[in-house]
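Below sits our specimen:

——
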Amino acid sequence: MDRKIGWILAISAVVVASSALVLVVVVLGRMLWHSESTWMSQWMSHRVEAGAPQEFGMGLGMMDGGYETRSSRWGMMQGGVFVDANVEPLTMAEAESALEDFLSASAYDDLEIGEIMIFDNHAYAQFVEVSTGIGAMEVLVDPVSLAVTPEHGPNMMWNQKYSTMGSHGMMGGSLSRVVSVEMPVSEDEASKLAQSYLDEAYPGLDVDEHADAFYGYYTLHTLQDGETVGMLSVNGYTGQVFLHTWHGDLLEMHGE
């Protein structure tokens, strides 16, 4: 009898110890998650003084060359970019200045500013290779901080030369990969695929005839009643269509 009671007490002790261990792991896990989330939040919201380049690590919407030129009052997050609900839209001059500052502070000596589109929630721009005329990357300019960040979506996922997803490219590394702009899907085919997609998903929208070629994909304007209202991208290998849904109302264009 005493032996049986001893076994029962031993098993009970093991159960209690196991429960205590699980509780400790859960508590420590929550503490670590809270600590890491707080650190990540602080890191993601880090900004630098005007004109001082800052090298950012991997993360959505981060690249070298962020600049703080206005007081920031962060509001809602739209398409990966924090914007103030009451912020004034960027002017073309402000967007150009931010883009020029970024290129000056970067290691990209073969890139120049291409098309710029001013939306009511940010500015969009293309960097183009001077030596080839091929699109290098697409970026956004925040209307509050004037920080230049890589555009999410196809620019990150499909860009074979300047993608932030790899070990080289927008994050400031050297570009050692040899890639070609030649793709199985031609510009004409990309336009047809894009229009077919719009006809089914967004009747009333048309696609521009011209497609800007990047390393791995194309980007085209979308039109409504003949006027540019936004853009979409087409994968140059699979033909997948990706609509840029994060842009607001288009206010002005330059270098189209």
